[in-house]
Each structure stands twice: as structure tokens, then as C-alpha cells.
Write a structure and sequence with these properties.
14 helices; 4-stranded antiparallel β-sheet; Alpha-Beta Plaits; about 325 residues; globular; alpha+beta; two-stranded parallel sheet
Length: about 325
């Protein structure tokens, strides 16, 4: 991950060099099995995402000094771990190394919360395909005395559930009876479920000591799908604790991604740029709104394509054409 950005972007190289040799090795040489381990996944993906973001800013400046004058940033958001990259881009996490330290600790806490005394996973996650209401009904029927929750509301036809293995098996059987397909996800445990409560409590203390700043742009929260600061009623200087508490809660709370995308579009977003490894989020966006323009940046090739596409979109806009 990120090797072509490292080789071709000075800004991206600075990010990787600041992250250190261990993370660079994970990103550039890590196997799929290794990168599935939560304590490795989180700092690696965060670093690649921030490298891609810095490479994007660098490329925009080189492409056209006036290009930013025609672009208004509606806001930023990130899916689960990606919310920390969004907070860094928004200036809430001021330094890359601080962000890396936070996500390393978050990854360790969440990994530990999801294993038993023998070091084996206590649960997992499954993507369910069908109407949200019907999936939620299946969750209620399957939970019994175990842990089972709908944790990622991705699109009108996709909801991810998480819980202990026995509850997931019950869910698969009940969902199948209702013609709802459930597909296990390749993850190490039941993220964003009540299983993560111990991690969330410990993470709160870490975040409260991290001197988080008020975002410089709107950040759409995973927990609310709205402006992270919308319900902040504290005084100046109290923003850090408010954000820390919200982000700690995020570890054990559902991600309302469908609503986040809908709110960004309602607020005027015409183009959504996915920054970081893969294009999964772009695919989900199309299931939420098939008309919105999506671009992505994960390597030097996709960066070049995105810059070219933005130039074309701006050219059309200046000529009075519709962007979408």
C-alpha cells in the first residue's frame, strides 16, 4: 500500500518517513494475513490515507494555483478508522505522529477487547443484504442472551452486523429464512459492537490527553452522521473533551454511513473523493446515490486521474454545464 505515492510524491514520502520504518514495512511488504491484524491495520491504513491526502494537496498546488478558488469543501468524513484521518485533515489532530500514536493504541485496545483469555477472537462481522428494517428484525430475533447488533448502516440495501459467533450463526439462519443474504467479513472481531466497550473506556482517557482541536472544516461524525460539533454546548477550550468523548463512543457505536453520505449531498457536495486504500466507499456511495460523482486517491495513478477529472469538472462548471 502506498509505495507508488512514496516513490513519486515528496509530500507522501514525508508522511511515510515520519511514520517510521516499521509502518513503512507493513505498508510496502505486509501480507494480507498480516494486514488483517488490527494493531497493524489501523496505523498502516491511517498512514497511507494521510500520505494520499498530502500528495493530493501537493498535486493540486502544482496543477493550478487558482484551482482551489473554484472548490468549496463541504466537509470531511471517514468510515470507522478513517474518521481519525478526517480529523487530521480537519486540523483536530494537529500532528501526524499524534494521530499514529492514537490509532496504534486504539488498534491494540480494540484487538484486546475482541479476544478471549486464550487469545482467540470472541466474535466477528457479517454484511447483510436486504431492507434495513427486516435486517434489524432478524438481529432482535437472533440476539438471545449474546452480543449482536447492526453496526454499519452502509446503504439502503446493505447493513453490517457484529457479535459473538453463536449469535452470528443464529442471525445467518434467521436471515436466510427471510431471503436475506449474510456474508462473513474478513475482520478479526466484532467492531463497533458492545464487545468494544472496554476499549472505548480506555480510549476515552487517551483521547482526553491528546489536546484535540476544534475542526477547521465540518467533520461528519460516524455516531450522528451530522456535524461533529453540532451539539457542542461548552465553552471555548472545552472542545477537546467533547470530541474525545464522542470518538471514544465511536468505537462501540454504529457507523451511520448512508446518512452521512445523504447529509453531505444535502449540504451541497457534488463530488466525493475517497482517499486511502481501495474503492469500497466509492462503491457504497453509488448504492446510496447513483448520480453523485466519485473519485479516489490510493496511488500515484489514481491521484493523476483524480486531478485530471477535477480539472475537467471545473472547466465544465465555468462553462455553465452541470457537473453531475
Amino acid at each position: 500500500m502506498g509505495k507508488s505515492l512514496y516513490d513519486q510524491s515528496d509530500a507522501a514520502k514525508k508522511v511515510f518517513d515520519a511514520a517510521g520504518d516499521q509502518i513503512k514495512q507493513w505498508c510496502f511488504e505486509g501480507t494480507k494475513e498480516m494486514l488483517r491484524e488490527t494493531h497493524i491495520t489501523q496505523p498502516s491504513v491511517y498512514t497511507v490515507t494521510m500520505a494520499a491526502y498530502e500528495a493530493f494537496l501537493e498535486a493540486m498546488e502544482k496543477a493550478d494555483k487558482d484551482i482551489w478558488s473554484h472548490i468549496q469543501i463541504v466537509g470531511v468524513s471517514g468510515f470507522s478508522l478513517g474518521e481519525y484521518a478526517a480529523l487530521t485533515a480537519a486540523g483536530t489532530i494537529e500532528e501526524l505522529q499524534k494521530g499514529i500514536d492514537i490509532v496504534i493504541k486504539r488498534g491494540n485496545l480494540m484487538s484486546f477487547a475482541g479476544i478471549d483469555e486464550n487469545g482467540n477472537p470472541k466474535g466477528g462481522m457479517s454484511a447483510a443484504f436486504g431492507e434495513r428494517a427486516e435486517i434489524l428484525d432478524c438481529v432482535e430475533l437472533a440476539r438471545e442472551n449474546g452480543i449482536l447488533e447492526a453496526v454499519n448502516f452502509n446503504s439502503p440495501v446493505q447493513t453490517v452486523v457484529a457479535g459473538d459467533f453463536a449469535a452470528l450463526e443464529r442471525f445467518k439462519e434467521i436471515a436466510g429464512q427471510k431471503k436475506i443474504k449474510a456474508r462473513p467479513l474478513s475482520v478479526s472481531t466484532a467492531f463497533h459492537s458492545p464487545m468494544m466497550e472496554p476499549a472505548a473506556e480506555a480510549l476515552k482517557d487517551i483521547l482526553r490527553k491528546s489536546d484535540l482541536k476544534s475542526p477547521g472544516v465540518k467533520v461528519y461524525s460516524n455516531v450522528t452522521a451530522k456535524d461533529m460539533m453540532e451539539n457542542f454546548e461548552g465553552s471555548v477550550g472545552e472542545e477537546s473533551e467533547f470530541i474525545a468523548d464522542l470518538m471514544a463512543r465511536q468505537a462501540m457505536s454504529p457507523v451511520y454511513w448512508q446518512e452521512t453520505i445523504e447529509n453531505m449531498i444535502a449540504d451541497g457536495a457534488e463530488v466525493l473523493i475517497e482517499i486511502g486504500p481501495g474503492t469500497t466507499l466509492s462503491g457504497i456511495v453509488k448504492k446510496v446515490n447513483s448520480e453523485i460523482q466519485t473519485l479516489n486517491i490510493e496511488d500515484s495513478e489514481s491521484l493523476e486521474k483524480t486531478i485530471s477529472a477535477l480539472k475537467e469538472l471545473l472547466h465544465r462548471e465555468l462553462k455553465g454545464e452541470n457537473l453531475c
